[in-house]
C-alpha cells in the first residue's frame, strides 16, 4: 500500500509539473518588431479594421467619446460575463505604461504584461494573423487617444473558469493562427482574407464553437448562437449569403441590405468601422466572402 501511495503521489507530481510546463504563457520572440517604426495614419486604419473601440469604448458612448477606450462593456458567454478593460493611454488604469511588446503579446498571444493568460474574449488567435507592421502602427495610434482613469472591472466568471492557468490548456487545444481559407487567391481575395480573418476577426462571431469555446473551422462563418442568448448570428458563407459583391460593399458602407433592411446590434459598430476603410478594402472583403466554402 505504501508503494502504491508513493507511486500515485509521484505520478500526481509529474502530472502537475507537466501541466504547469505545457500551460505556461508563451510570449512573442523578442526580435519580432526589430527595425520597425510606427505610423499614426496607418495605425488609425488598423484601429478601425480591428474594431478596438467597438469593445473598449464605454457603454453607450457616441461620437468622439468612442475614442475614449475606458472599457466597461459586458459580453456574456457560456463561461461567464467578460467586462472589457480600459485600454486608454492612462498610465495607471489603462495601458499607457505598456511597451510595444506588452501590447503585441496581449493581442497576438493572449499574455498580459505580468505573464498571465488573457481569456479568449480577446480574439488573440485572430489577431495572431496580423503582420508585425500593423501591430506597430496600431500601438503608435493608440498612444494618441485620450487617457481615461476609469478602473477596469473584474470579469464575472465562476470556478473553475476563474483559474487563468486553465486558459493555457485551452490554448493548447485551440491555438490555430493559420488562415482558414486556403488555395489560389487573387490579390483582392488575399487582402479580404487578411481583413476578415485577422484584423476584423469576423469568424469570432460568425463561426460556431465547440464545447470548449474553440472555433469550429470546419463550419467557418456558418453562423452561430448569439452569446447574449437572443437570436443567432447569421451564416455569411455563399450557401446563405447570396448578395452580389457590390451589395456586400454597400452593406459594409451604409448598413443597408439589398432589401432595404438595416444592420442592428453589434454589427452597427462593425459597419461604422468598415466604412472608415478605403472602398477597395470593403470590396476585398466582399471578394473574400465569395471565396469562402459554402456551408448549409
TrEMBL record:
PROSITE patterns: CYTC. Keywords: Heme, Iron, Kinase, Metal-binding, Signal, Transferase. Coiled coil: none annotated. GO terms for molecular function: electron transfer activity; heme binding; kinase activity; metal ion binding. It holds the Pfam family Cytochrom_C. Residues 38-146, 187-293 form the Cytochrome c domain. This is Diacylglycerol kinase.
Amino acid at each position: 500500500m505504501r508503494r502504491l501511495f508513493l507511486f500515485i503521489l509521484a505520478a500526481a507530481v509529474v502530472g502537475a509539473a507537466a501541466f504547469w510546463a505545457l500551460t505556461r504563457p508563451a510570449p512573442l520572440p523578442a526580435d519580432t518588431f526589430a527595425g520597425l517604426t510606427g505610423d499614426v495614419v496607418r495605425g488609425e486604419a488598423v484601429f478601425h479594421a480591428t474594431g478596438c473601440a467597438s469593445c473598449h469604448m464605454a457603454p453607450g458612448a457616441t461620437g468622439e467619446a468612442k475614442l475614449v477606450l475606458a472599457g466597461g462593456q459586458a459580453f456574456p458567454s457560456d463561461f461567464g460575463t467578460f467586462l472589457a478593460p480600459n485600454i486608454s493611454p492612462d498610465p495607471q488604469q489603462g495601458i499607457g505604461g505598456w511597451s510595444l511588446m506588452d501590447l503585441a503579446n496581449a493581442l497576438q498571444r493572449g499574455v498580459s504584461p505580468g505573464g498571465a493568460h488573457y481569456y479568449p474574449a480577446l480574439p488573440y488567435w485572430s489577431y495572431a494573423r496580423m503582420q508585425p507592421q500593423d501591430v506597430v502602427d496600431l500601438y503608435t495610434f493608440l498612444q494618441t487617444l485620450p487617457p481615461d482613469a476609469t478602473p477596469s472591472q473584474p470579469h464575472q466568471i465562476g470556478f473553475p473558469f476563474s483559474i487563468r492557468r486553465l486558459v493555457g490548456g485551452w490554448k493548447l487545444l485551440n491555438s490555430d493562427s493559420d488562415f482558414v481559407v486556403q488555395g489560389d487567391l487573387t490579390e483582392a481575395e488575399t487582402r479580404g482574407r487578411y481583413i476578415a480573418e485577422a484584423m476584423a476577426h469576423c469568424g469570432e462571431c460568425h463561426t460556431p464553437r465547440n464545447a470548449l469555446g474553440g472555433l469550429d473551422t470546419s463550419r467557418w462563418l456558418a453562423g452561430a448562437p448569439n452569446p447574449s442568448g437572443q437570436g443567432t448570428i447569421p451564416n455569411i458563407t455563399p450557401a446563405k449569403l447570396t448578395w452580389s459583391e457590390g451589395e456586400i460593399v454597400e452593406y459594409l458602407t451604409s448598413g443597408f441590405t439589398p432589401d432595404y433592411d438595416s444592420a442592428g446590434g453589434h454589427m452597427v459598430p462593425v459597419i461604422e468601422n468598415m466604412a472608415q476603410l478605403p472602398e477597395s478594402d470593403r470590396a476585398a472583403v466582399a471578394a473574400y466572402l465569395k471565396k469562402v466554402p459554402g456551408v448549409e
